[in-house]
Amino acid sequence: MDKIINCIIINGPNINMLGVREPELYSNKTLKEIEGNLYTLSKELSIHIETFQSNSEGKLVDFIQDNYQQADGFIINPAALSCYGYSMLEALIATKVPFIEVHLSNIYARERWHSDSIFSSKAVAVMAGMKDYIYESGVRAMCHYISENNRKTEE
Protein backbone atom coordinates (compact mmCIF):
# COMPACT_ATOMS: atom_id res chain seq x y z
CA MET A 1 0.00 0.00 0.00
CA ASP A 2 1.30 3.45 -0.92
CA LYS A 3 2.03 5.98 1.78
CA ILE A 4 -0.68 8.64 2.06
CA ILE A 5 0.61 12.08 1.02
CA ASN A 6 0.43 14.60 3.86
CA CYS A 7 0.04 18.22 2.67
CA ILE A 8 0.19 21.02 5.22
CA ILE A 9 -1.28 24.43 4.39
CA ILE A 10 0.33 27.30 6.32
CA ASN A 11 -1.15 30.80 6.33
CA GLY A 12 0.94 33.72 7.52
CA PRO A 13 0.10 36.87 9.46
CA ASN A 14 -3.13 38.77 9.00
CA ILE A 15 -4.65 36.36 6.52
CA ASN A 16 -6.44 33.04 6.57
CA MET A 17 -8.22 30.98 3.97
CA LEU A 18 -10.95 33.61 3.80
CA GLY A 19 -8.56 36.34 2.70
CA VAL A 20 -9.56 38.49 5.67
CA ARG A 21 -7.03 41.18 4.81
CA GLU A 22 -8.81 42.21 1.61
CA PRO A 23 -12.28 40.66 1.76
CA GLU A 24 -13.67 42.81 -1.05
CA LEU A 25 -11.39 41.02 -3.53
CA TYR A 26 -12.86 37.61 -2.85
CA SER A 27 -16.18 35.90 -3.37
CA ASN A 28 -18.55 35.12 -0.51
CA LYS A 29 -17.27 31.62 0.20
CA THR A 30 -17.23 30.72 3.85
CA LEU A 31 -14.39 29.02 5.68
CA LYS A 32 -16.60 25.91 6.06
CA GLU A 33 -17.06 25.75 2.27
CA ILE A 34 -13.32 26.05 1.66
CA GLU A 35 -12.55 23.41 4.30
CA GLY A 36 -15.31 21.22 2.82
CA ASN A 37 -13.76 21.51 -0.65
CA LEU A 38 -10.37 20.56 0.77
CA TYR A 39 -11.91 17.58 2.58
CA THR A 40 -13.56 16.45 -0.69
CA LEU A 41 -10.26 16.92 -2.51
CA SER A 42 -8.38 14.92 0.13
CA LYS A 43 -10.80 12.01 -0.36
CA GLU A 44 -10.55 12.28 -4.15
CA LEU A 45 -6.74 12.26 -4.09
CA SER A 46 -6.43 9.89 -1.08
CA ILE A 47 -4.26 12.35 0.83
CA HIS A 48 -4.28 14.05 4.22
CA ILE A 49 -4.57 17.86 4.42
CA GLU A 50 -3.81 19.84 7.56
CA THR A 51 -3.96 23.64 8.02
CA PHE A 52 -2.20 26.08 10.33
CA GLN A 53 -2.40 29.87 10.66
CA SER A 54 -0.56 32.25 12.97
CA ASN A 55 0.14 35.97 13.21
CA SER A 56 3.58 35.21 14.70
CA GLU A 57 6.53 34.33 12.50
CA GLY A 58 8.08 32.54 15.49
CA LYS A 59 5.02 30.29 15.85
CA LEU A 60 5.08 29.57 12.11
CA VAL A 61 8.75 28.57 12.35
CA ASP A 62 8.08 26.42 15.43
CA PHE A 63 5.18 24.70 13.63
CA ILE A 64 7.36 23.92 10.61
CA GLN A 65 10.19 22.57 12.78
CA ASP A 66 7.78 20.47 14.86
CA ASN A 67 5.80 19.02 11.93
CA TYR A 68 8.06 18.72 8.89
CA GLN A 69 8.82 15.04 9.47
CA GLN A 70 5.15 14.20 8.88
CA ALA A 71 4.90 16.52 5.85
CA ASP A 72 5.36 15.49 2.23
CA GLY A 73 4.72 19.04 1.07
CA PHE A 74 3.85 22.49 2.36
CA ILE A 75 1.46 24.91 0.67
CA ILE A 76 2.29 28.33 2.12
CA ASN A 77 0.51 31.66 1.93
CA PRO A 78 3.13 33.88 3.57
CA ALA A 79 1.05 37.06 3.13
CA ALA A 80 2.68 39.77 5.26
CA LEU A 81 5.87 37.73 5.47
CA SER A 82 6.48 37.96 1.72
CA CYS A 83 9.18 40.63 2.03
CA TYR A 84 10.80 39.84 5.35
CA GLY A 85 10.05 36.29 6.50
CA TYR A 86 13.63 35.05 6.40
CA SER A 87 13.22 32.89 9.51
CA MET A 88 10.28 31.08 7.93
CA LEU A 89 12.14 30.69 4.62
CA GLU A 90 15.20 29.29 6.40
CA ALA A 91 13.00 26.87 8.38
CA LEU A 92 11.34 25.64 5.16
CA ILE A 93 14.65 25.19 3.35
CA ALA A 94 16.18 23.34 6.32
CA THR A 95 13.40 20.73 6.19
CA LYS A 96 14.14 19.77 2.57
CA VAL A 97 10.35 19.30 2.19
CA PRO A 98 9.07 20.86 -1.05
CA PHE A 99 6.77 23.87 -0.76
CA ILE A 100 4.48 25.83 -3.05
CA GLU A 101 3.78 29.50 -2.44
CA VAL A 102 0.20 30.66 -3.02
CA HIS A 103 -1.35 34.13 -2.86
CA LEU A 104 -4.97 35.01 -2.23
CA SER A 105 -5.29 37.72 -4.82
CA ASN A 106 -5.61 37.94 -8.52
CA ILE A 107 -2.50 39.11 -10.32
CA TYR A 108 -3.85 42.61 -10.86
CA ALA A 109 -5.13 43.24 -7.33
CA ARG A 110 -2.08 45.22 -6.29
CA GLU A 111 -1.10 46.18 -9.85
CA ARG A 112 2.00 44.01 -9.66
CA TRP A 113 3.03 40.39 -9.44
CA HIS A 114 4.47 39.10 -6.17
CA SER A 115 7.96 39.17 -7.63
CA ASP A 116 9.43 40.66 -4.47
CA SER A 117 8.60 37.55 -2.44
CA ILE A 118 11.69 36.01 -0.89
CA PHE A 119 9.97 32.61 -1.05
CA SER A 120 9.44 32.46 -4.81
CA SER A 121 13.04 31.63 -5.73
CA LYS A 122 12.99 28.55 -3.47
CA ALA A 123 9.42 27.35 -3.99
CA VAL A 124 8.73 24.56 -6.46
CA ALA A 125 5.80 26.63 -7.75
CA VAL A 126 4.28 30.06 -7.16
CA MET A 127 0.57 30.55 -7.70
CA ALA A 128 -1.94 33.37 -7.34
CA GLY A 129 -5.70 33.30 -7.53
CA MET A 130 -8.98 33.69 -5.77
CA LYS A 131 -9.67 31.70 -2.61
CA ASP A 132 -12.31 29.65 -4.45
CA TYR A 133 -9.60 27.55 -6.01
CA ILE A 134 -6.09 28.59 -4.98
CA TYR A 135 -5.70 26.10 -2.13
CA GLU A 136 -7.17 23.25 -4.18
CA SER A 137 -4.80 24.20 -7.04
CA GLY A 138 -1.84 24.34 -4.66
CA VAL A 139 -2.65 20.89 -3.24
CA ARG A 140 -3.11 19.39 -6.72
CA ALA A 141 0.18 20.95 -7.87
CA MET A 142 1.99 19.60 -4.82
CA CYS A 143 0.59 16.08 -5.33
CA HIS A 144 1.64 16.21 -8.99
CA TYR A 145 5.13 17.40 -8.01
CA ILE A 146 5.50 14.62 -5.42
CA SER A 147 4.28 11.89 -7.80
CA GLU A 148 6.56 13.13 -10.61
CA ASN A 149 9.58 13.14 -8.30
CA ASN A 150 8.69 9.69 -6.95
CA ARG A 151 8.47 8.42 -10.51
CA LYS A 152 11.91 9.87 -11.38
CA THR A 153 13.37 8.34 -8.20
CA GLU A 154 11.97 4.91 -9.13
CA GLU A 155 13.41 5.01 -12.66
From TrEMBL:
One of its GO terms (biological process) is amino acid biosynthetic process. Pathway: Metabolic intermediate biosynthesis; chorismate biosynthesis; chorismate from D-erythrose 4-phosphate and phosphoenolpyruvate: step 3/7. GO terms for molecular function: 3-dehydroquinate dehydratase activity. The active site is at Y26, H103. SUPFAM superfamilies: Type II 3-dehydroquinate dehydratase. It catalyses: 3-dehydroquinate = 3-dehydroshikimate + H2O. The record marks R21 as: Transition state stabilizer. Substrate binds at N77, L104, S105. It comes from the Bacteria. It is an enzyme of class 4 (lyase). The keyword Transmembrane does not apply. Its EC number is 4.2.1.10. InterPro entries: DHquinase_II, DHquinase_II_sf. CDD domains: DHQase_II. Keywords: Amino-acid biosynthesis, Aromatic amino acid biosynthesis, Lyase. Catalyzes a trans-dehydration via an enolate intermediate. NCBIfam families: PRK05395.1-2, PRK05395.1-4. Homododecamer. Belongs to the type-II 3-dehydroquinase family. This is 3-dehydroquinate dehydratase. It comes from Anaerosporobacter mobilis DSM 15930. The gene is aroQ.
